[in-house]
């Protein structure tokens, strides 16, 4: 047994109470890496706990009768039954985090201004922080390690984060900007999930000699990892999905009739029926998916587990979606995926495209990096049926010919393997150099 693999590793995730298969797939990717490489002493952290959210919801219930706390709590417990990761609440355990031999901030959004503002609101309204200033101090100390000496940051890696939505106005603010600059200048190594974030880090550190880019964490999952995931469905569910077109829409306001027209063209050309892909908890949103006229393999169940969703994707012939992590997981499972999306942020903040007036769409960026833009259908094309039909038939020819899709898959797998290799090499380097003796620790 390599003694490095027994040293303490702490992983920090972003979190929420919603059942988000995309986020879950990213978290499961590190669990898979740990199993592959023999890391055995791991503690997983999220800033706040489900109980913190439940307490918050109890305060909101009188003014929001639509909140069904009992249902939320039972569904959350059922969804995570059999989930291999057990989360600790980071608040109150910062001393455990900084005493670790290695620290990894893992997966997207943790260091975005949007989440910074979200945590400020949550911590204050949960009464964990007595004021916004105290909330800022807690976020800075736990998510950005601002109070820690360089020795702690030299044991800290960031992997799979994105800061692509950042603008200079965010990065130069007194609160978020200062914390952001402190972390990304001092962390030992940063591997960003796309090239735009990687470039920001290079510019911040004034170091253009290192490759700061990696891949989305979910791309590190392999088929064997999916096979080991807990499921709630049956073999019949998977057989139902075989060689069909999987359809999920939950990140746009595209009209249902337009979704149907897209899927019908693909279905006719590919000689494949469509099914509605279960992804997360149906009652939490996804209005298009609720009314799409395609059968669902899960019947009338409220949800399926992330292992079910990924297994169903793998059985499909093609996926059609507007959702980033559906596309990520589908391409990673070797399934050609058509993404229908815009580029512009239509709201003050859009989860797809960032901030209004400074839009950069994560789905489009993903497809550009995969060299799969042929498979990206712009929402604007819907207004020109002949153009859209020609584009979709171009896509079906590429799928039928297979060679183009195989090139995309080959590139993705090569990048994912290289990203995992670099992460493990860097992590082992941290574990080689760490000793519990004589550490300077600040537990704010």
Q: Low-confidence parts, pLDDT < 50 over ≥5 residues? A: 436-444
Question: If classified by CATH, what would the architecture of the largest domain be?
Answer: 3-Layer(aba) Sandwich
Give me the number of helical elements. 19
The radius of gyration computed from the alpha-carbon positions, rounded to a whole number of angstroms, is 22 Å
Identify the overall geometry: globular
Say what the CATH topology of the largest domain is: Rossmann fold
Helix content: 40-55%
User: How many β strands by DSSP?
Assistant: 13
Q: Biggest sheet: strands, sense, closure?
A: 6 strands, parallel
- Strand share of the residues? 5-15%
The structural domain count equals 2
Descriptive account of the structure:
- With 444 residues, this protein is α/β, with parallel strands linked by helices.
- The protein folds into two domains: 238 residues, Rossmann fold (3-Layer(aba) Sandwich); 171 residues, Rossmann fold, CATH 3.40.50.
- Helices cover 47% and strands 11% of the residues.
- It contains 19 helices and 13 strands.
- The strands form three sheets. A six-stranded parallel β-sheet has the order 3-2-1-4-5-6.
- Helix 1 links the parallel strand 1 and strand 2.
- The radius of gyration is 22 Å and the shape is globular.
- It starts with 8 loop residues before the first strand and ends in an 11-residue tail after the last helix.
- The relative contact order is 0.12.
- The C terminus is likely disordered.
């Amino acid at each position: 047994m390599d003694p490095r693999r027994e040293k303490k590793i702490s992983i920090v995730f972003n979190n929420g109470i919603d059942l988000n298969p995309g986020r879950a797939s990213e978290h499961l990717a590190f669990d898979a890496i740990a199993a592959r490489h023999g890391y055995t002493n791991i503690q997983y952290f999220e800033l706040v706990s489900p109980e913190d959210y439940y307490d918050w919801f109890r305060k909101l219930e009188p003014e929001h009768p639509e909140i069904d706390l009992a249902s939320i709590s039972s569904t959350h417990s059922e969804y995570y039954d059999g989930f291999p990761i057990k989360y600790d609440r980071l608040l109150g355990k910062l001393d455990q985090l900084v005493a670790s031999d290695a620290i990894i901030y893992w997966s997207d959004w943790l260091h975005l201004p949007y989440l910074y503002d979200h945590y400020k609101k949550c911590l204050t309204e949960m009464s964990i922080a007595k004021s916004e200033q105290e909330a800022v101090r807690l976020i800075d100390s736990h998510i950005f390690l601002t109070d820690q000496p360089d020795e702690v940051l030299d044991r800290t890696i960031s992997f799979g984060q994105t800061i692509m939505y950042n603008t200079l106005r965010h990065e130069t603010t007194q609160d978020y900007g200062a914390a952001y600059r402190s972390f990304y200048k001092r962390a030992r190594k940063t591997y960003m999930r796309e090239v735009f974030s990687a470039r920001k880090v290079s510019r911040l550190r004034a170091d253009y000699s290192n490759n700061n880019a990696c891949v989305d964490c979910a791309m590190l999952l392999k088929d064997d990892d999916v096979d080991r995931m807990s499921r709630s469905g049956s073999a019949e569910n998977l057989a139902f999905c075989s060689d069909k077109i999987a359809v999920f829409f939950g990140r746009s306001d595209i009209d249902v009739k337009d979704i149907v027209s897209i899927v019908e063209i693909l279905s006719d050309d590919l000689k494949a029926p469509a099914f509605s892909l279960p992804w997360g908890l149906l009652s939490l949103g996804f209005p298009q998916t609720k009314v799409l006229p395609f059968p669902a393999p899960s019947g009338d169940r409220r949800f399926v587990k992330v292992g079910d969703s990924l297994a169903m994707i793998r059985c499909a012939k093609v996926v059609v979606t507007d959702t980033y992590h559906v596309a990520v997981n589908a391409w990673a499972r070797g399934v050609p995926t058509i993404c229908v999306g815009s580029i512009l942020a239509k709201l003050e903040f859009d989860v797809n495209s960032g901030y209004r007036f400074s839009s950069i769409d994560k789905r489009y960026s993903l497809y550009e990096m995969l060299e799969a833009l042929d498979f990206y259908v712009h929402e604007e094309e819907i207004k020109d049926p002949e153009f859209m039909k020609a584009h979709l038939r171009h896509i079906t020819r590429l799928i039928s010919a297979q060679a183009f899709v195989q090139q995309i898959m080959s590139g993705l797998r090569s990048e994912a393997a290289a990203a995992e290799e670099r992460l493990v090499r860097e992590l082992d380097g941290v574990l080689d150099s760490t000793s519990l003796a004589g550490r300077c620790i600040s537990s704010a």
